[in-house]
Design goal:
By secondary structure, the chain is α+β, with helices and mostly antiparallel strands. Helix content is 19%, strand content 32%. It starts with 7 loop residues before the first strand and ends in a 7-residue tail after the last strand.
Length: 117
């Protein structure tokens, strides 16, 4: 399947991950599981799930994690992503096996309106 040439890729994360991203401007991928003994956090991201739009990134993140809280979606410039390393994950979504460092990017905060349900 041919990967489209996009100006931006989108990546969704929870508030804690976004707070970490604000500090170091890097979305980490690690080949193994890491446990932070100070905080007790377990980190096991072996690939990133990038999307071609904000709604697709939000939906993919929530579907994969069953997360209902606030989600932050980063707009990552295409020059930060090596397109040759992308593999299709579904409609308008791709797996990316490398860490990404982003000096500047847009971000959109999305909260579900569960009061209407």
């Amino acid at each position: 399947m041919k990967t489209p040439k996009l100006k931006y890729y989108y990546f969704a994360m929870n508030p804690q991950e976004y707070q970490d991203f604000e500090q170091n401007r890097t979305i980490l991928v690690m080949p193994t599981t890491v446990i932070d003994v100070e905080t007790g956090r377990i980190f096991a991201r072996t690939q990133l799930l990038l999307a071609g739009s904000v709604p697709d990134a939000d939906t993919a993140f929530r579907t994969g994690s069953d997360y209902l809280g606030t989600v932050y979606v980063l707009r990552i410039p295409a020059e930060c992503v090596d397109r040759s390393k992308l593999t299709a994950a579904g409609t308008n979504t791709w797996y990316y096996p490398r860490s990404i460092t982003v000096a500047h990017c847009g971000v959109e905060q999305i909260a579900l309106d569960i009061s209407a349900a």
